[in-house]
């Protein structure tokens, strides 16, 4: 599954309304996320960049909102309603080759939430 599709499914699960995709966000000059890619969404009547695949804060807020169980030692995440039912229900970020544990954890969170989004009609 492509990153944009993962993000769309994750947003659906979280109830976020996405505006559009941007490859090069032109936020306020000096903002730490200028030139990042991701979806724009409305937050308190302002446009904000959202991409939990690259931003730790976006990923953590997503995990908290959906009540994920996170295992940082094994870099995996699981929706709360599946916890303890089947060890194979843990999502990993292993769809990429990376030594960056934070990147792998963010991806595990997005994969777990995207599974929830996929089940929503």
**Which geometry do the CA atoms define?**
globular
What's the number of helices? Answer: 3
Strand order of the largest sheet: 1-2-3
Average pLDDT value? Answer: 81
User: What is the domain tally?
Assistant: 1
- Structural class, by secondary structure, is alpha+beta
Largest sheet: 3 strands, antiparallel
Question: How many β-strands, per DSSP?
Answer: 6
Radius of gyration: 14 Å
Which strand-content bin applies to the residues? 15-25%
The ordered string of helix (H) and strand (E) elements is HEEEHEEEH
List low-pLDDT spans: none
Share of residues in helices: 25-40%
How far apart are the first and last residues' alpha carbons, in Å? Answer: 18 Å
Can you walk through the features of this model?
The chain has 121 residues and is α+β, with helices and mostly antiparallel strands. The chain has one domain (3-118). The protein is built from three helices and six strands, in the order H-E-E-E-H-E-E-E-H. It has helices at residues 3-14, 56-66, 101-118; strands at residues 18-22, 38-43, 46-50, 69-71, 76-78, 91-92. It has a three-stranded antiparallel sheet with strand order 1-2-3, with helices on one face. Strand 2 and strand 3 form a beta hairpin. Helix 1 crosses helix 3 (101-118) and helix 2 (56-66) packs across helix 3 (101-118). The protein is globular and about 40 Å long. The protein starts with a helix and ends with a helix.
